[in-house]
């Protein structure tokens, strides 16, 4: 798709422009053939940077971790503690731990040869898409992949590696959302029981002026601290990607 776009759009414009350039964007020749000039690389890099937050939140473990931590905070009844910045920072570092092997593989096989000029940008993309697709396929459900293959009117692939990224990425997002909601529902149960017990006790003794949530909140926090909840939750989250 990218090669076709460059061929149909940029190459004819550059050939017709004086000095084979268009607004300072040129195709330069090297030992591997035509490659993008520095201005064009900067344009593409800035475009990728604008899409980086969406990619980070959707195509990494960041999605599952943030949703689970949000459920945990709601279950504890602490609306602003920990703050959003703390939860996002924690989710970011946990995501880096999980994707570190894949990122290292992509760097060694794709980015490093591209920097040294051993391969072209197209070859680098082909090499990088393999490990990324393998990682996404580990957590994408077959049912979700089938859904997006049907929506895109694509043929059924002969093997998992033949599934296009256009179907793998949204299927991964749906699968991660389902997994995150399942974990969040399990986290809610013990704290829900505490809320029910406290509400029953307060109503039985006639304490209707004081909201039961205010009474149950310290008990839920105390229970979470006594069982070392952060260690259990974070450890289970990271192990769920193994």
Tell me about this structure.
This protein has about 240 residues and is mainly α. Helix content is about 75%, strand content about 5%. The chain is built from 9 helices and 3 strands, in the order αβββαααααααα. The chain has helices at about 1-15, 40-60, 60-75, 85-115, 120-140, 140-150, 165-205, 210-225, 230-240; strands at about 20, 25-30, 35. It has a 3-stranded antiparallel beta sheet with strand order 1-2-3. Helix 3 (about 60-75) runs antiparallel to helix 4, helix 5 packs parallel to helix 7 (about 165-205) and helix 7 crosses helix 8 (about 210-225). The model is unreliable at about 1-35 (pLDDT under 50).
Key structural traits:
242 residues; mainly alpha; three-stranded antiparallel β-sheet; 5% strand
Concise account of the structure shown:
The chain is mainly alpha-helical. Helices cover 74% and strands 5% of the residues.
**From the helix content, strand content and strand pairing, which structural class follows?**
mainly alpha
Task: State the major sheet.
Answer: 3 strands, antiparallel
Number of continuous helical runs: 9
The proportion of strand residues reads: under 5%
Helix/strand order: HEEEHHHHHHHH
Name the poorly predicted regions.
1-34
End-to-end C-alpha gap: 33 Å
The counted number of beta strands is 3
Q: Which shape, going by the Cα principal axes?
A: elongated
